[in-house]
Amino acid sequence: MRILFMGTSEFAVPALNELITREFNIIAVVTQPDRPKGRGKKLSPTPVKSVATDLNLQIIQPEKIRTNESVEQLVSLQPDVIVVAAFGQLLPKTILDIPPCGVINIHPSILPKYRGAAPIQWAIINGEKETGVSLMLLDQGEDTGDIISIDKMIITDEDTAETVHNKLAILGAERLADLLANMPRDNTPSAIPQNHKQATHAPRLTKEIGYINWTDSANDIHNLIRGTIGWPGASTVYGEGLQVKITKSITQKNKQIEVDRTVNTQPGTIIVSPERKLSVVTGEGDLQIEQVQPATKSVMKVKDFINGYQIKTGDRFYSKNSNCK
Fold first, then answer.
1. Alpha helices (runs of H) in 194-233, residue ranges in sequence order
2. How far apart are CA 231 and CA 289, in angstroms?
3. Are 280 and 166 in a shared domain?
4. Is 0.85 surpassed by the pTM of this model?
5. Where is the domain boundary, 134, 164, 198?
6. Is 118 exposed, middle or buried (0-12, 13-18, 19+ CB in 10 A)?
7. How far apart are CA 30 and CA 26, in angstroms?
8. Is a pLDDT exceeding 80 seen at residue 262?
9. How far apart are CA 111 and CA 168, in angstroms?
10. What is the pLDDT of residue 186?
11. What's the pLDDT tens digit per position in 221-242?
12. Tens digits of per-residue pLDDT, 27-64?
């Protein structure tokens, strides 16, 4: 079977590696163009391109996949099936119609829930207890195609967007390889339509999504911190304007600490225990902070934050857009 692989981000890397390990015939890899990164704005390859280069695979990097030139190039490759994993561009019908076995996509959610660019992050932010990987036949919509299979997994209270991303990438890679190993060469795999009435959307995250509102519940803020790890991060303001990202937390239902309740308990109020642990009053319950990252600094343990910035009970964290008074 002639397989054309289309992918860009780290999520697609396990799938490409799994197909190579199991000796599938990858005729070419299509990925996004190199982009400038870092302070020097040096052009950097996509994660998929880096792997494909090491594997000596043919690499195609169109700026826009829907141009006539790009479509003609893919037609000339004569793929039996196209596999897509976090490619980053919607495919036109002219490409969807190329392979006789269809275009198969790995999507990291239990479709039709969380269609869109950030399904993993939103599942955690919204406090979902499970997620999964859907293999689907792509159509011209955004994650609206017929479902081939769904495999579910539990989201634990300790999981973050990064840990769930890695687990789903591996699960998706394994299920894709299993599907291709048993798929006829001249026909699309069987699939069932999605229930579009049950669809939910998972739009791309913005910086504003990560701003902590301390009047929310401790559990909701904990989910926001876990779900925005990597980008954009969960942000707050300490004291007179220090920008701080909260990178790890524990809800009080998971771990109790003794705190001084003689101080103001307005949401955002910091309470430092005798053991130098830090909790924050929220709109519902307390949130214990484990790790933070002050602006321009590296991630640090909360004890180092307390000592380095002389944090004391009664100090405040403020929401990003509030007045620090």
1. 218-227
2. 19
3. no
4. yes
5. 198
6. buried
7. 11
8. no
9. 14
10. 79
11. 999 999 999 999 999 999 889 9
12. 999 999 999 987 788 999 999 999 999 999 999 999 99
Helices and strands (DSSP H and E) totals, the chain: 8, 16
Q: Is the predicted pLDDT of residue 254 greater than 70, yes or no?
A: no
Size (the chain), residues: 325
Residue 86 falls inside a structural domain: yes
CATH number for position 283: 3.10.25.10
Specify whether 54 is located in the same domain as 166: yes
CA atoms within 13 A of residue 95's CA, in its CB half-sphere: 27
Distance CA 46, CA 174 (A): 22
Question: Quick one: 153 and 300 in the same domain?
Answer: no
Residue burial 235-258, b: 16+ Cβ < 10 Å; e: rest: bbbbeeeeebbbbbbbbbeeeeee
- Decide if 30 is inside a domain: yes
The torsion angles phi and psi of 134, rounded to 5 degrees, stand at -110, 125
Q: Among 198, 225, 253, give the residue marking a domain's end.
A: 198
**Is residue 323 in a domain?**
no
Q: What is the pLDDT of residues 127-185, one digit of tens each?
A: 999 999 999 999 999 999 999 999 999 999 999 999 999 999 999 999 999 999 999 87
Instruction: Quickly state the pLDDT bin for 265 (edges 50, 70, 90).
Output: confident
Cα 126-322-312 angle, rounded to 5 deg: 90
Are residues 150 and 224 part of one domain? Answer: no
What is the Cα–Cα distance from 100 to 114, expressed in whole angstroms?
A: 28
**Are residue 175 and residue 291 in the same domain, yes or no?**
no
Token pair of 281 as six digits: 């009053």
Element (H, E) at 305: helix 302-309
Mean pLDDT, rounded, for 104-113? 98
DSSP 1: -
Instruction: Mark whether 142 and 219 lie in a shared domain.
Output: no
Count of structural domains, the chain = 2
Q: What is the structure's pLDDT at 247?
A: 98
Cis before residue 47, ω within 30 degrees of 0?
Answer: no
Which domain, by its residues, includes 51?
A: 2-198
